[in-house]
Specification:
Blueprint lengths: L10 E3 L20 H5 L5 E4 L9 H9 L6 E5 L2 H4 L8 H15 L3 E7 L8 H10 L6 E5 L7 H10 L2 E4 L4
Parallel strand pairs: 1-2, 2-3, 3-4, 4-5, 5-6
Amino acid sequence: MKNSNPKYHIGCSGFYNADWKGSLYPADSENKNFLKLYSQIFDIVEINSTFYRRPTKKTLQKWIDETPDDFKFFIKIPKTISHQKPFENKKEEISEFCTYIKSYLGDKLAGFLFQFPPSFHYTSENMNWLKENLPEDDLTVIEFRHISWWDDEVFEIFTAKEWIFSGSSFP
C-alpha cells in the first residue's frame, strides 16, 4: 500500500479563474497572482493546462516559487495520450512526460490524472492498454466518463494496482 497514514488535501480543478475575483481572491487581484493567492487557501491543485500543452521549465519553477513548501500539484496527462485514437503503446511517452514533471516538482507532485473521453468504454482491450501503459510508481488517478467502467472487475483491478478510480457525474 502506498500510504497507510493518509493526509487529506482539499483543492480545486485549476486556480486561474477571473470569476473568483471578489470571492476567493480579492476583487483587485492581478491574474498573475492567482496561484499565490490560491495557495494561501488550499494545499493542492489539479493542473488542467497540461492537458493542452507541456509546461515550460519556467512555468514549473514559477509554480514551485509561488507556493508553500507543503503545497501539492496534481498534473493532468496530455490529451495526446488519453484522447488520441487508436490507443497504441504510449508507455514511453507517458514515462517521459511524468519524468519531466517529477524532475521539477519533486515532492510537490501529488500524482497524475488520466482523464478519458466518453468514447473510452470498458473493454478488455482498453483495460489491457491501461495495465500496459500507466506508470507503476506514481499515484495515478483515472477519470472515466463512461458508465461501463463502474464494474466490480474494474474496481478489483484498481485495488490490486493501487490506482484511484474517479468518475464524473452529470446532472
